[in-house]
């Protein structure tokens, strides 16, 4: 008889986006003429940058000739892309990362979800609340948690992000081995300073822990004092893995390309207490279970680092940041407490009422869809998330409607 992995039975069905869809559909049925504005889901809305499209086309044309055809490529990614990443995203910022420490993949979702496979099932895991659900659910699947009770999984060390700590969690009061951090943060839009990030790096070094740092929104940072990469912090090469994606900077959510940085110095320990480098283990896992990102997509990603591509991405991200600024100003003028909207496409708003009640209010009175904060964890209760991923015109109309509905 075949038994299933019972840890899957502990997973809480995520009704978040289907519940949102149901409420939106019911409202639309009752108000067929209302044009609903969606500031909910975290997907980009604007076209791929021209430089990426041109490189993509060119690579497809190469594939159409026997001479230019590419079959299986290196699982870790083509050297042209890994070298461009190391040079422009790290070395240019003074972070000492080399091309052979970069693993190109089809998404930061998969990478942040898969990385925990390298560690023992009794590793103690620290996960932010509110959170991008992938970190938590993949650890549940792996059996690193107990049951779900009172809104939380047993055995997880939750890192509360609240108004009191300005949405940057404090160090855990109990020992942990694996730490997930995400800055600029999804869903809160909060950022972390170099000094704050250094306390985490120092903690991980002290505890022989590892930080999994998700920097998917790095391109939204405009404040030069904020770290774009954890490797801008001294000592991070020994205790941090970083995840990046072309989804939010270059609009690759439907094109799929991302990468993970695993420095040579990162280690975990075997049962004898010997240091085991993580790089060869991730390399082994990646080569065994993954067969590379398509050649045209890697060429399109490489174009992100051309002069033309860089300018286009700055404009693209700047467009969303301008939307975020408009949202932040409007909610501030309405008297709401919020965080984010700067150096981030997300605005996290304290509604001072149940998240779903606030969601219904905005939908029914303004025809605007947000994401209820409670869907991201216990600490999200009472909040909603608004996203800047829409046209400027729609964002402006949405904020005007919210103003009229709540005034
Ligand atoms: C969007 C997002 C990613 C990127 O995911 P991809 O699989 O690369 O599209 C990673 N982490 C967070 C927190 C995100 O919001």
TrEMBL record:
**Enzyme Commission code(s) on record:** 2.6.1.83
Which UniProt keywords are given for this protein, alphabetically ordered? Answer: Aminotransferase, Pyridoxal phosphate, Transferase
Q: Does the keyword Transferase apply?
A: yes
Its recorded reaction(s) are: (2S,6S)-2,6-diaminopimelate + 2-oxoglutarate = (S)-2,3,4,5-tetrahydrodipicolinate + L-glutamate + H2O + H(+)
Source species, domain of life: Bacteria
Q: What class of enzyme is it?
A: transferase
Q: In which pathway does it act?
A: Amino-acid biosynthesis; L-lysine biosynthesis via DAP pathway; LL-2,6-diaminopimelate from (S)-tetrahydrodipicolinate (aminotransferase route): step 1/1
- Which terms in the Gene Ontology molecular function aspect does this entry carry? L,L-diaminopimelate aminotransferase activity; pyridoxal phosphate binding
Cofactor annotation: pyridoxal 5'-phosphate
The record's InterPro entries line, in alphabetical order, gives: Aminotransferase_I/II_large, DapL/ALD1, PyrdxlP-dep_Trfase, PyrdxlP-dep_Trfase_major, PyrdxlP-dep_Trfase_small
Q: Which Pfam families match?
A: Aminotran_1_2
Q: What residues does the Aminotransferase class I/classII large domain cover?
A: 35-402
Where does the record locate the signal sequence feature? none
- HAMAP family, per the entry: DapL_aminotrans_1
Cite the NCBIfam families for this sequence: DAPAT_plant
The record's PANTHER family line, in alphabetical order, gives:
AMINOTRANSFERASE
Name of the molecule in the record: LL-diaminopimelate aminotransferase
């Amino acid at each position: 008889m075949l038994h299933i992995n019972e840890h899957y039975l502990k997973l809480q069905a995520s009704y978040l986006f289907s519940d949102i869809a149901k409420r939106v559909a019911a409202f639309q049925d009752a108000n067929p003429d209302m044009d609903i504005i969606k500031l909910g889901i975290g997907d980009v809305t604007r076209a791929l940058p021209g430089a990426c499209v041109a490189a993509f086309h060119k690579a497809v044309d190469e594939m159409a000739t026997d001479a230019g055809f590419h079959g299986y490529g290196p699982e870790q990614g083509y050297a042209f892309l890994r070298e461009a990443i190391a040079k422009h995203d790290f070395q240019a910022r003074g972070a000492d990362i080399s091309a052979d420490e970069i693993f190109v993949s089809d998404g930061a979702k998969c990478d942040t979800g898969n990385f925990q496979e390298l560690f023992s099932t009794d590793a103690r895991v620290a996960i932010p609340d509110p959170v991008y659900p992938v970190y938590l659910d993949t650890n549940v699947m792996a059996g690193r948690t107990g049951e779900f009770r009172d809104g939380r999984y047993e055995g997880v060390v939750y890192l509360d992000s609240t108004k009191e700590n300005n949405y940057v969690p404090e160090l855990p009061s109990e020992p942990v081995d694996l730490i997930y951090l995400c800055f600029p943060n999804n869903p809160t839009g909060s950022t972390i300073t170099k000094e704050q990030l250094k306390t985490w790096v120092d903690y991980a070094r002290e505890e022989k822990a590892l930080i999994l740092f998700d920097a998917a929104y790095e391109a939204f940072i405009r404040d030069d004092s904020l770290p774009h990469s954890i490797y801008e912090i001294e000592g991070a090469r020994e205790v941090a893995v970083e995840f990046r994606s072309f989804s939010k900077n270059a609009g690759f959510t439907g094109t799929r390309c991302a990468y993970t940085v695993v420095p040579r110095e990162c280690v975990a320990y075997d049962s004898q207490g010997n240091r085991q480098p993580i790089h060869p283990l991730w390399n082994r896992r990646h080569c065994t279970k993954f067969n590379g990102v398509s050649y045209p997509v890697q060429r399109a990603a490489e174009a992100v680092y051309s002069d033309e591509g860089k300018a286009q991405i700055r404009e693209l991200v700047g467009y969303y940041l301008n939307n975020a600024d408009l949202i932040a100003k409007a909610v501030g003028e309405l008297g709401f407490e919020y965080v984010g909207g700067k150096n981030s496409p997300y605005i996290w708003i304290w509604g001072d009422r149940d998240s779903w009640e606030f969601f219904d209010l905005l939908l029914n009175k303004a025809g605007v869809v947000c994401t209820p904060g409670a869907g991201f964890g216990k600490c999200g209760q009472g909040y909603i998330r608004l996203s800047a991923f829409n046209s400027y015109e729609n964002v402006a109309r949405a904020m005007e409607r919210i103003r009229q509905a709540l005034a």
